Amino acid sequence: MALLLIVLLPFIGSLCAALLPTNARNAEAWLAGIIALTVALLTAAQYPQLAIDGVLRLTIPWSPTLGLDFQLRMDGYAWLFAMLVALIGTLVVIYARYYMSPADPVPRFFSFFLAFMGTMLGVVLSGNLLQLAMFWELTSLASFMLIAYWHHRSDARTGARMALTVTGIGGLALLSGVLLIGHIVGSYDLDAVLAAGEQIKAHAWYPTIVGLVAVGALSKSAQFPFHFWLPHAMAAPTPVSAYLHSATMVKAGVFLLARLWPVLAGSDLWFWLIGGAGLCTLLIGGYLALFQNDLKGVLAYSTISHLGLITLLLGMNSELALVAAVFHMVNHATFKASLFMAAGIVDHETGTRDINRLSGLYRAMPITATLAMVAAAAMAGVPLLNGFLSKEMFFAETIFAERTEWQRLLLPLAATMAGMLSVAYSLRFVHQVFFGEPATDLPHQPHEPTYWMLLPSALLVAVCLLVGILPAATVGPFLRTATDSLLGASAPSYSLAVWHGLNLPLYMSLTALMGGVMLYLPFIGRNSERIPLLGAIDGRQAFNWLLGAITDLAGWLLGRLTSPRLQIQLLVILLVVIGGSLLPFVDGPLHFGEQSTIELDPAFALLWIVGAVCAVAAAWQAKLHRLAALILAGGAGLATSLTFVWFSAPDLALTQLAVEVVTAVLILLGLRWLPRRDKRYREGKREPLRAHLRRLRDLLVAVAGGGGIAALAYAILTRPTVDGIASFFVEQALPQGGGLNVVNVILVDFRGFDTFGEITVLAVVALTVFALLRRFRPAPESVALPAQQVEQDVGTRAPDLAAGLPTGYLMLPAVLVRLLLPMAMLISLFFLLRGHNTPGGGFVGGLVFATAIILQYIVGGTQWVESRLRIHPLYWIAIGLLAAAMAGVTASLVNDPFLTAESWHASLPLLGDIHLSTVLLFDVGVYMLVVGATVLMLVAIAHQSLRSLPRKSEAEGAP
Amino acid sequence: MELTLSLAIGIMAGSGIYLVLRPRTFQVIIGLSLLAYAVNLFIFAMGRLRLGAPPVITPGLGSDPALYTDPLPQALVLTAIVIGFATTALFLVVLLASRGLSDTDHVDGREPEEE
What is the mean pLDDT of chain A? Predict the structure, then answer.
């Protein structure tokens, strides 16, 4: 439970933080600080249990049939990282309270900050690789939001986009790698994966997996060649840089490499890929850090370089190197976060981060300077500080590992070189900013910041010193549990001590220290603008070029594959469909079956002669005679409906018939707003030859498509039936569904969830239609009343809305239609109630009722009906949907799955036996929703005819 | 019967395809209706044709699947008919709105240059 709280608390806090007012700086900071501290204490409280059990687990079943659970898993390694995330988070919150300006909208900052903390804890504590990949992507998103926090600045936006693109692509690669691992192991459970190391290494996909996981981890940890995004991410507020881009998020990559180290490491491929990337990054990052003029730029490149060191250690395929890597992750987090805070303080108090402008700040801010110096010394690897210890371990690994001759020469050399670079840029950072003549042209007069801003940095520096002097007593046990949990029985023995005697690593350290000082000497008093050698290699340019090229390629492909013209696009789709359905016949022609057929009934032949003529005539007339085409299409629909009757599908026939009526009315209502066409064609303009050719082409496509589907239909109809799942539905309809009408039982019971989805779609469509028509603006030429209506209205008065009886020439039909309404209601209810046992049901009933209402519109006129209508379609839709949902939830009350049918039998006096079922409630929901949706759509369109009235009067009234 | 129904499906599908390729929105909406009839009949026919055997269980006869026609395609088609109605309504309104905004009923929202 505590594990769940650790992950959930930050997210809850994030929501709360988002809801606080913009200027609530103190409340925000208190909230975030308390949450971070609580998480830290909760995590710390797990340690005793962890030391006994080794691993703490929490599994919440999510989709057990798919084998997907929400799994949290905390071992020593995860504990160490979670502590790091929570503690540094707490410190950064305190720092951020004083760093952020009162003008900044802090709710956004703290909300995303806490969300990031939650996602990072999710990465660290995930017991399932898929879940880890998900949290991994979420950290990228949170980082994106935080880098772009000052979104009015273009560098912040560019940097955020670049970071998201690079780490997002890496996340996709990681996901692919995880999927492959899951496929080999048969589970995404971290324990199962860690136990299957040999199996994965022996598998043919091993290189692919290593490659994909490497892309994911290296891009996240800003390793060569993906390192370029990190310096651009420095556009973020400094607390974000301190937290995400040095201490935690960029560590996720190396965290994962170490997590999967027992599974993936140990091969030459691992050494070359991970070790190679680490070595390149270590040197390139260190070299570039030396030439940066922005304080945060120096720190960004040095972060890249130190992460390279960790990656190189992980790539060395040695257990001791892994220990050193984990140790350095912790050490780097402490001194680098502290350095970022110092850089932020300098920026905050002087108004600039330009190393060339800053100088001699020691006098103005001695405490900041001291803290920065100690932290920088830790970064440089000066003895008695924590950076020294892990660097020594790194040096020792480069020489003592069993390797080939040239590697034993090259690795120590490169390591010493990197050490020198590290010393040189640390020295430059401290010397140029804090020493020399005090700068005079700074934007603000520098002074010491408030002590609260110094406190987090000071605490971190204290940790650097403590760990550096008393490693075994402070970090020792925790490091031991972390590495034991990673390596299990094969964990090596090592000693954390400051003094190991005079040995080669110590000489290497001394060489690096002295070499670094020498390397720095030429930089004193020099403003370096250009970066020699590597200056030409700009990752951002390559990235932008690549992005541009991919966009161009996508645009080119889109231009080839699609057309802005609908006709062309549809033609392509149809041709692909026809061509695709021909593919199975490459091997042999389509052969018809032997099944005996039903003898042709002349009436059926006649029906379809009419139906086919209707269809073809509708196709022919749709251009110029819309009303005729609509009636003809209705004829084809009627033939379809009768066919359903003929072949034992009464439910379909009823529904088709009702839908037919409603659709016809709907389109009739729409016809009024379409342009008149007769005039242009009455002039007898000759059509160009191309138009004829195009029609011929479409005719051929239509014949091919129609012929194809006819052949397929006949081929299937002459084959014997396949033993499908139909028998289940027929056999179980009565025992399980309690209904005789199998189709209705399938709809409201067996596949009730599908129907629920379907009626939701119907509701959404109705609402969309309603919304679209609220903003409907008819074309000017359609606004005036149609000629027919004008002719009809000659000599008739405007309708009297208050009259009890309708007036005018439609008086008799109107009276009849009004009498029809209650009858239709009764019939629709009859269909609804009998639907479970005989043809009918909610759909048919609803459509019948809706038809009755629209008849009132047609005959009585829009104004007359709307002045009397007591039906609110929106309520009907809502109540219908709620009723259907209620029917589903009722089952959950008695612990059955959603939408299980529950029924009650009761015997009442007078009424006799009563059978009530949630299925009926569900069907009532369907009924109400269909009524509501249909009426809403029809009424919305019918109502449009009123639009022309006020406009017309306006036009008349205008001078 | 089977042949007649197959031909009917083919003719309606063909008419529908031809109309869907036409330039005016009204032609397309009628074409989609015809295509929907054809496709619904096609799916329905996948359950094979039976005379006088609706999938409504007669209590006296019992629930032997051989006595009744396949109910599954019918349930699918019933759903398809209702959804087809919803999409037709949506398309109609989009078509009207497009006509109101662009002053043309061409499917691309503007009259082609030639013709």
Answer: 87
